[in-house]
Amino acid sequence: MSAVSKMVVKPNAPGGRSATVVALPVKRVPLAVRVRGWTAFAAARVLPPLTVLAVLLLVWEVACSHPGASLPTPTQVMNDSWELIAHPFYDNGGTDKGLGWHLFASLKRVALGYAIAAAVGIALGVLVGQSTFAMRGLDPIFQVLRTVPPLAWLPLSLAAFRDGEPSAIFVIFITAVWPVIINTAVGIRNIPADYVNVARVIRLNGLEYFAKIMLPAAAPYIFTGLRIGVGLSWLAIVAAEMLIGGVGIGFFIWDAWNSSLISDIIVALVYVGLTGFVLDRLVAALAVLVTRGAATS
């Protein structure tokens, strides 16, 4: 049981009266109650996906265990690719590297292309959202260009840059920029009229209106576009790296296919899925932090 603590506050002015501040004891939750809470959380959030995963693995194991099966079973994948799983950062030179290095190379390309797409997309989205003329002039072009598949841009970017590295970054940029532009423009157009009126009453200049009204009000929409964009970026880089070669998770998958290493491909797909999930969660957490919960995770 916590003891009640007291503190006497002395007056600052002469002749004043002192006061006693009593700190109430903090109620500690019993260990048994906390254990029941953790157990309930695990049963509600952790147990269902683990159960579904176990069932899927069992079905996969049974379906592929017969002689002549074209795909390996989960146990065979573990046996064939254990060295790849256990040593993700080996480096034998050239493109003979562990999955960790391939992922790192892909993430560097995604980070650069996505950062450019975020900056350009927010700027163009603000322009389209603020200006009726810009919206009427640019929106039809954006609607057409955003339907072009990401890999369709790769030959054009290779012709323009004459190098695989900037071409892959361009493909990421052109894939991720459209949802950022569109969602930012929607967010700007949906700024409440009361906010605009208040900005006029207190006579905010353009920069103050942008920083104090426009960006905070449109932030949930902007982060929705950024979240869609990061997922598309990850999809695009894997496909682009299959064509440009070099070090990267896409090239690793294509090289494993050419070497008939199906188990390595399955392991790489697991890495790709987990990395994409982590990227999505990171952007969602940043959105909740910046918008103070206005953007849902």
Please give a quick description of this structure.
Keywords: Cell inner membrane, Cell membrane, Ion transport, Membrane, Transmembrane, Transmembrane helix, Transport. The chain is mostly helical.
Key descriptive features of the protein:
Nitrate/nitrite transport system permease protein, 2 strands, 11 helices, transmembrane, MetI-like fold, 297 residues, nitrate transmembrane transporter activity, 3% strand, MetI-like, membrane, mainly alpha, two-stranded antiparallel sheet
* Rounded average pLDDT: 87
- Which superfamily, in CATH terms, is the homologous superfamily of the domain at 99-295? MetI-like
Which sheet architecture does the biggest sheet show?
Answer: 2 strands, antiparallel
> Quaternary arrangement of the chains shown?
single chain
Residue fraction in strands = under 5%
Structural class: mainly alpha
**Count of DSSP H/I helices:** 11
Query: How many DSSP-defined strands?
Result: 2
Q: Summarize the amount of helix as a percent range.
A: over 70%
The top level CATH class name of the domain at 99-295 = Mainly Alpha
Strand arrangement within the widest β-sheet reads 1-2
Whole-Å distance between the termini?
Answer: 39 Å
GO molecular function: nitrate transmembrane transporter activity
Family: Belongs to the binding-protein-dependent transport system permease family.
Keywords: Cell inner membrane, Cell membrane, Ion transport, Membrane, Transmembrane, Transmembrane helix, Transport
Membrane topology: Multi-pass membrane protein
